[in-house]
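Dear colleague,

Following up on yesterday's call, I've attached the two folding results inline so they're easy to grep. Please treat them as preliminary; we haven't cross-checked anything against experimental data yet. The first protein's sequence and structure tokens come first.
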Amino acid sequence: MKGNPEERAVALGQYVVETGATVRSAAQQFGISKSTVHKDLTQRLKRQNRALYNGVRRVLQQNKEERHLRGGAATRQKYHPEAKRTLSHVK
């Protein structure tokens, strides 16, 4: 979804709030760069829809607090694929 940046920012914000998606997964879903997602969510959305921005900010903060757990789980899966540990305990 390229096109109008303001519309894209609102669509990204709704997606992140509904799914709890990370910046990286939202970028992949929308086919845009992580930098564009971050700019849309932190700058454009703040001007467009303050309530949605506040919801997105909470999700991004939670993702930031959990990133060390995600990295640990990814490393475990890489070196010990038989240990099928997931991030279900994180959410």
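Below is the second protein, in the same order (sequence, then structure):
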Amino acid sequence: MKKIVVDILLFILMLVEYSRVYLPSEIHEIIGICLIILVLIHLILNRNYFKAIPKGKYSFKRSFMLVVNVLFIIAFSATCITGLLSSQDILTFMNIGNLTTVYLHKIFAYASIIVLGMHLGANLTKLFNKFENNLIYIGIIILGVYSLIAVDFWNHLTGNYGFSIVTGNIAINTLEYLFIILMFSVITHLILNFKNRKNN
């Protein structure tokens, strides 16, 4: 139960963080600090996973999940570090006053979205199977692609923009990032399912 509560809070706060343009910088930083704490709790609650890494055989899915999990830890850690170093309100003593840090924070944050989607797609197989429907998947992918364009995801990911694009309001913005994450989750789920069926 603790894991579920922590995971839900993590997901909600991550979505809200990407509405940076609608939030006061103090709130953005406070949420960021809360995310760091929640991720540490998440890692502690899932410590058995790390203990099991050197044990047993590795299937394609298990190897894939390990790579994705490691990438997510790296991307999220880099996001947190660059975020702390570019603090303008809460942790100003850590601010190194470098615009490059702000841009790197944005790049790592957007890379984290991709890996988060893959992480969910690999870890929520049972949930996806319960709602397996090609029309739903197609709808999510279409909305995900639309959202990628709406928020100009590629330019953020490549560092061409240092700040968020205004797309309407915080509710619309949150939904757009939700569909982007779900799109990567669905694509990951479909790839893993295809690979599993091929092996069987």
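For the second protein, one point worth flagging: DSSP finds nine helices and no strands in the chain.

Best wishes,
A.L.
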